[in-house]
Hints:
Elements: E1 2-8, H1 12-31, E2 35-40, E3 46-51, H2 56-63, H3 67-70, E4 74-80
Antiparallel strand pairs: 1-3, 1-4, 2-3
Amino acid sequence: MFVISITYTKSASEIDALLTAHKQFLNEQYADGVFLMSGRKVPRSGGIIIADATDRAEVEAIIETDPFYIGGVAEYEITEFVPSMTAEALSVFRHISDRN
């Protein structure tokens, strides 16, 4: 499981110019079952994505297709983690060794 923290590096107008394409990118990743949750930071300085990917290389390859990345308007920080505790509604995401 991965947390992707996006930080804008350009003006709001430059971000907004790519927002529709970025949302399409998000929709594609949701359809592929990789992205589980996403949203903007408050204040609006970037966003957060929770992803269930095979490995870091997969996440990096996906990020490289994000219009924000291609347009050079954001920086990305990737943090891998193993969910060992969750709310019951999210129990499917607990680490496999913790399911027994």
